[in-house]
User: Fold this.
Amino acid sequence: MSAYTIVLADDHAMFRKGVKKIIGEIAGLEVVGEAGDGLELLELLKKTSPELIILDISMPNLRGLEATREIKKLYPEIKVLLLTMHKKKEFLQQAMAAGADGFLLKEDADSELFQAIKTIRQGNRFVSSLLSAELTDLALTKNHGDPLTNREREVVKLLAEGKSSKEIADLLYISIFTVRRHRDSIMRKLNLKNLASLIKYALDRGYTADDA
Assistant:
């Protein structure tokens, strides 16, 4: 089985070295190129065609968001994982609008990089656990008057089906911490006090149906 090919783009060589080291310890992954800025990255893509680009959002000459838009226009089949130190919701919104397949905080790179690559490789979007709730807030709710996000409804559905926090985390490719945070948010939004009332809410809303 051929390796999953990755290009790294970050203006800090030491950070690229660190990410490359993490990737090098994971079987089936291979770094096939590196770039120090967005323009260098676009030139590199004329010579190599990786399956994933891990891209710093704050690079000189051509910023990560601009580079992402160009990559998605020229090479729509290539996945893009944006790395950033920025925790503001606005950066996440801009990243998703640019077509990024993932948004990973640099402080989470050590612990979440592999999960990010795995999630994107499976065709799903990845967001750092510290920001995953922000992503679901960008999604349209199922219907007017429902205060829950798409991800929160997924959590409600799985809770109503008797899944544990760990099972939900595995199914949705998020951390247990994020599952608990979603659950707290759901209880707060719906003004519910316990799991029984949450399950009743799910049943009344039809969240356990196949199209939930």
Summary: The CA atoms of residues 92 and 151 lie 16 Å apart. The beta strands are 4-9, 29-35, 52-56, 79-84, 102-105, 126-127. Confidence is low (pLDDT under 50) at residues 138-144. The chain has two domains: 4-128, 139-205.
